[in-house]
Amino acid sequence: MSDRMKSGLAVVTGAGGGLGRALALELAARDMRVVALGRRREGIEETAAMAPKGQIEVLQVDVADAGAVREGLREVTEEVPITLLINNAAVYPRRDFLDETPDSFMDTVAINLGGMVNCSHAALEGMVETGFGRIMNVSTFADLAPLPASSGYAVSKGAARILTRAMIADLADRFPDIVINDWMPGMLATRMGVAHGLDPAQSAKWGARLALWHDPALNGSVFERDREILPPRGIKARIKDALLMRRRHPRVISG
Prior knowledge:
With 255 residues, the chain is of the alpha/beta class. Helices cover 42% and strands 16% of the residues. The protein has nine helices and eight strands. It has an eight-stranded mixed beta sheet, with helices on both faces. Strand 6 (178-184), helix 8 and strand 7 (222-224) form a beta-alpha-beta unit. The longest helix is centred in the middle third of the chain and has 21 residues, at 151-171. 39% of the residues are buried.
């Protein structure tokens, strides 16, 4: 972790439980000052109580409320800037499309996609000013093969991956030291996950390491658990690689 990263705040959304709590605690254990952001005060206060006193600050905010997010983050960054944002907050209502209403569907989109827009936009105010920062979006491949009763979740999380690429398209050339990428933690043993899933504390170790890895070469990369998912290559590129005896190796989270 760079000294510049450590000099600022790490904001973790959805930090009142599950993976968000585990990420906040792992970052605190790595000497980052953390803002645990969430809708339920009880949950984020429980997260803060699990860390050394003063290491985690709580911010009760609904990520779907753009104004509240902007004002809340401005308050906590009056003296110290945000150097890291982990967009983790999400809901998974598990409703059949015929049981959804347009309003309930868009409520899911407002949190899973809108929350990422709101938090990223607010955090970028300071990052653009300093020319430095790190945004990691907790992602999924749910849009590629949606499960039954997951339409709102699949659509919103799939669009969130597009948002990552769109932000990079707008920012990467002008602000190469603002590094943005996607991370998929895998199936976890959390309320949104499955009983036999991975312990979120283990997953958070990979996520925290990746989030604190500040390297412009990571811009636009996609990691699943502890390993990079390489983008597909066209037939011409694969033939060229073969002729040049060139092999690409996925990066692995370590350290």
